[in-house]
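REQUEST ID: PR-0412
SUBMITTED BY: lab tech R.K.
PRIORITY: routine
TASK: structure prediction, single protein chain
INPUT:
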Amino acid sequence: QVQLVESGGGLVQAGGSLRLACAASGFSFSAYAMGWVRQAPGKEREFVAAIGWRPGVTYYADSVKGRFTISRDNRKNTVYLQMNSLKPEDTAVYYCTAAYRGSLYWGQGTQVTVSS
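STATUS: complete
OUTPUT:
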């Protein structure tokens, strides 16, 4: 059974940092592209960042480029999202995703709230 369990969300002041983690199980983690998607209240889900199965292949939304860093540890089956210089507009539920050959899995989400 595929499981993606996010952690690390919380309340932080603007300018602060958080690191999200997503622990994966039930599939061949190293073969999957992993990512983060967020959804703010009343808004559509928005792509944040992704990392391919190949080392060093990463993608970012323009809104987070230079502030967020995605990484993965295939030994721990975990993907991370380091978020620096957080802004109130980063407030959202952050979801971990796993994708491989047409299959897409989602975690349950973790809340990130940035106060001004």
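NOTES: The CA atoms of residues 38 and 94 lie 4 Å apart.
REVIEWED BY: pending
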